[in-house]
Every structure is written in structure tokens, then in C-alpha cells.
Amino acid sequence: MEENQNQSSSLFQLNLDPQNSYALRSAASWAKVLGILGLILGGLFVLLGILVQQAISNSSGYNSYRYRSSGFSAESLGNIGMAFYILVGLMFIISSIFALNAGNKITGGLKGNDQVMLNAGFAGARNYFAFWAIIMILTLLLMLLGIMGSL
Q1: pLDDT of amino acid 87
Q2: Does pTM top 0.90 for this prediction?
Q3: In which domain, by residue range, is 117 found?
Q4: In angstroms, rounded to a whole number, what is the distance separating the alpha carbons of residues 116 and 91?
């Protein structure tokens, strides 16, 4: 019984050895790289959505054409496409902020030997993974709905 208590309490007293510290520092630096690249990619998605919508709305050939089966004009389809690109861009930007935050706090916690900052970094990593897990679940549900609707 006493041995079980010692094992369970030792889980809450984990120490970082040099090898784990190096791996965690490396993961934090990759999180920062992922965060910066995600911010750039998210900004490009937003910019691309706006540029495509502007190109479609300024093109006189597309404005006169209407899709007969759906009743949508090319301009309204351009607006729908722009909204999609902006939504995807915002998803990348939000998740990148989580990754960048986690990477910075983990690095700061390791450099300053600050447990509170390290814990905040782990919370940021949890938020990043939870965000993408929710996005993946919603995407899977939408795909299943699409498949069910096509049957």
C-alpha cells in the first residue's frame, strides 16, 4: 500500500534531466517555427481570398454569367469563396498563436527555471492540440454529412 502511494506521489515530482530538457527545448523551437509559418500562411489565405473575390467582382465577363441550376451569380460565389479562405486563414492564425505562445513560454520556463511559465507553456500546447482536434472532428462530421447527403 505504501509503495503505491510513493509511486503515485512520485508522478507529481517529475524532474527534467538534460536529455528531456533538450528534447523539450527542441520541441518548443519547432512550435515557434510552426507558429510563425502558420501566421504567414494564415495571412496569405486571407489575402488570397480577398484578391480572388476582387478579381471575380471586377471581371465583367463573370458578372453577367449566372449559374442556371443554383441561381448564384459569379460575384456571390466569389464572396462565398472569400469567406471560406478567410475562415481557413483565421483557423491557421488562431492555432499559430497557440503554438507560438506555447513555444515561447516553454523556452522561457526552461531558461529561467520557472515552473509557472513551463506550466503555462504546456497549457498553450494543450490548447493548440485541442483546437486542431476540434477542427478535425468538425471536418470529419461535415464530410460524413456530405457523404450521407449524397446517398
Answers
A1: 94
A2: no
A3: 28-150
A4: 28
